[in-house]
Amino acid sequence: MGNFDDHYKAMLKLANEYYLAVKILEKVMKSNKAFEAKLVFPATNLASLTCEMYLKALAYQYSNAQIPEGGHDLVVLFSKIDPKYYQWCENEFNEESKNEFYFVDEIKKYRRYYPDWRYLYERGWTEPEFSYGVRPWSLFYICELLNKLANGKVTV
């Protein structure tokens, strides 16, 4: 598998590439309401996967090279990172949302979006059923926070 640093860098590189795609989708969605409606599902799915990738990289770093178990569940993966990172994300998110939405509620809401949303068509989904209450901006912001942590852009 290579050494710890190489593996962590590879995990981080891939997460950063997915994050770039999330930022592009976010920009397109903010610039055009018609695109926002059309892109909410793929953008939210991709953002959820991106959060997962950052969390796995941070958990790998925190545990000194243990690949975290927990599959795709963001709540479980958040429990695998340094607790001070979790607390920082929670504080930053709640401050940014002006306590209108709470971090703990948002990660519970999005905890399984990647596995649940990637094959919606197989479950015979209907758009209103899944789009009600979706706040992709929350997940985009969580991606941003995790990007900052994983890339050492903040000191916690």
Task: Describe this structure in a few short sentences.
This protein has helices spanning 4-31, 33-62, 74-78, 83-96, 103-109, 113-117, 127-131, 136-150. It is mainly alpha-helical and 156 residues long. Helix 1 packs antiparallel against helix 8 (136-150) and helix 4 (83-96) packs across helix 8 (136-150).
Q: Which helices and strands appear, and what pairs or packs with what?
A:
Layout: H1 4-31, H2 33-62, H3 74-78, H4 83-96, H5 103-109, H6 113-117, H7 127-131, H8 136-150
Helix pairs in contact: 1-2, 1-8, 2-8, 4-8
Protein model, in words:
The protein is mainly alpha-helical and 156 residues long. It is 70% helix and 0% strand. Helix 1 (4-31) packs antiparallel against helix 2, helix 1 runs antiparallel to helix 8 and helix 4 packs across helix 8. The radius of gyration is 15 Å and the shape is globular.
